[in-house]
Amino acid sequence: MAIGHSPLVGPLARIARRERWCVTLVNRRDARIFRGGPDGLREVGRIHDDVSGQHDQGGWSQSRYQRGIEKEKDDHLKVTCDALLRHLKRQPFQRLIVGGPREVVTDFEQKLHHYLSERLAGRIEIDVERPNADQVLDAARPLIEKLERQREHEALERLGERGACGLEDVLPPLNERRVELLILDEQFGGVTGVQCLECGWLGLEGDRCPADGSETVQLEDLTEAMIELSVQQSADLLAVHHEREALERYGGAAALLRF
Question: Which CATH number does the domain housing residue 189 bear?
């Protein structure tokens, strides 16, 4: 149990990181929507539409029937796109993976709202109807981990442009609300510090807040307070898993700055 002066948002921020991904499986009749990340997926939506099968009578009858089949398939894909957009608006995700028959997936991607298409991260080959959430994750994990590693690498590369490296350099811009992305080793913790209960200022030591002169309180671990302060300034959190060795030179903490 954790008791403090403010809500414990660190675990929620880490959960949000695990909810970054959406995996959608779609074929001509069925669609399934999964949310989560490399640690696990959960199925949050399932759509089934009655789409007619093939027709082999030939002639004009077959042509009209085939057009009807395509219309039913298109309607099914549009319903799936609309459902996916509602999921995005209700609980935003950053990356989208699509799986299913190649022809259907290509058609589906073309129908996506641009809010969704700009999040497309790739495709996986998998049956739509039978696999459970763990099997879907097994198929998606290589792509997820590849792109997570790429994101971590790019973030660390950008530190040379406008970054703060090391806890002593990260805390000042964090206090000044100038952090765009807080980068922490996924196992970062155990660093003691102080906090002003009036304005939220964080430091490694000091009995008085340099911002307003109020007394500070001792914190056994600065991690949760740092994450809370980053959330208050709408900064993103990157919990580094793959590039931990590269972040270790900075003591496990860094930040990309807005200015």
Answer: 3.30.1330.30
